[in-house]
């Protein structure tokens, strides 16, 4: 077993030219727009050409609530994709692009780990093909055009107190959460309070990930509500005449990126909304293209199944007409121990009782996922210190929940460590056992949709929302937005809105602080508890350890 760092392993990868990877999915050199030798964008012409193909099987990888012990969702996604190819299946993976915020903050990158990674790891975790920069630019162009419209006479009669379009940047910077712009006198415009969100929370990011074509993209961008008049009628991005230029900036970003795993299997990496403050799934265009070119597609949804998987089912699948054939729920023995009350420093010692105690969190996620009508397999992501008795305890518990658990060693062994999981997942996906249905129908009132998620998924007793929030939801329903799905913005660490409450708590309430209408993306964002749409850096950010070594290579990324 190797204990090399992720970046060392990635640097030693035996990468193949990206044209060879594309050829596995039927792409010619003309179908790819290369960014160097090891990454490329897939042309719209190729995407259009495969629409008549048979649709492959869709496998969703999700996880328990994240803990400091680590779960390994992306690593498992990559390992399962490699495992399916290793048993002779034609498989591709679809994951999200990495945000610079977590890379330089606390969470790290988004390319997997150990011997189950996507490469080139450094580029993927940094600027990659520039998609996030394009999204940031398009978003902020709209912001600049709104302020410019007001400055030059405000023909649309925008109420400056009701400009709802904030600015974004792809960095954790708490100082920008709430700011005042246009100070300094008449020539700088009219001062007003606003703020920044992180790029991955931008509605433009969500739109890029849900749009099916450039035409659809421009329509959705035009549908963004940016402000209101004094009579509360909405102002759209198309009223500002920003949708055309925004589409131009996003023209290349709209095309999915193709890269490869360490085992030279195809991986689509495209889009990157967070799952705690956005909808947490990679792009529809990447997923649907993969499904038309591979027999099995392994994708992931961010954070725990209460956030990412719920949004995958209720937003992405609903909007794109998708249905998962199997769900893989990732858990670790270490995380079970933490949910059972063990401190991070004590995770090395065997503690079967704590594992059993912590399994309640896993059990709730299994039940929630099954409520969507989809078969669930638990992947126990193996750590070197896990004892056989602890692994057995997880397996025994999962059996009592009417599911099955499979030990996976992809981090250390690559595809060899996921052969059993891949074989079983392929069997389930091929069986046609999935009877997928979303949690709620389109015509359910907006507040009732919020309550259904809170009560059925979080097991809350009630949703707390003041009259202002309820009135806002009613106004949106009257304006024709009542059929939209809900995107909950909530801490990823707990079923509750309190990040310190692990396990499977009951008897709690979900306080709604604010609601935001994402009319272009096509959902209502519900901000709960203390969740922030612009994160801050931790006391010791990862950025402090990231540097170039004497050979000019990047060190410290993980």
Automatic annotation (TrEMBL):
| Origin organism lineage | Bacteria, Pseudomonadati, Pseudomonadota, Alphaproteobacteria, Rhodobacterales
* Ligand binding (ATP): 67-74
Q: Which PROSITE patterns does the UniProt record give?
A: FTHFS_1 (PS00721), FTHFS_2 (PS00722)
What EC number(s) does this enzyme carry?
Answer: 6.3.4.3
| GO BP: any one term | tetrahydrofolate interconversion
Q: Tell me what this protein is called.
A: Formate--tetrahydrofolate ligase
Provide the gene name from the record. fhs
Q: Which Pfam families match?
A: FTHFS
- Catalytic function, reaction form: (6S)-5,6,7,8-tetrahydrofolate + formate + ATP = (6R)-10-formyltetrahydrofolate + ADP + phosphate
Q: Which UniProt keywords apply?
A: ATP-binding, Ligase, Nucleotide-binding, One-carbon metabolism
Q: Which pathway does UniProt place it in?
A: One-carbon metabolism; tetrahydrofolate interconversion
The UniProt GO MF terms for this protein read: ATP binding; formate-tetrahydrofolate ligase activity
Instruction: Quote the InterPro entries the UniProt record gives.
Output: Formate_THF_ligase (IPR000559), Formate_THF_ligase_CS (IPR020628), P-loop_NTPase (IPR027417)
What's the family? Belongs to the formate--tetrahydrofolate ligase family.
Which top-rank group of organisms is this from?
A: Bacteria
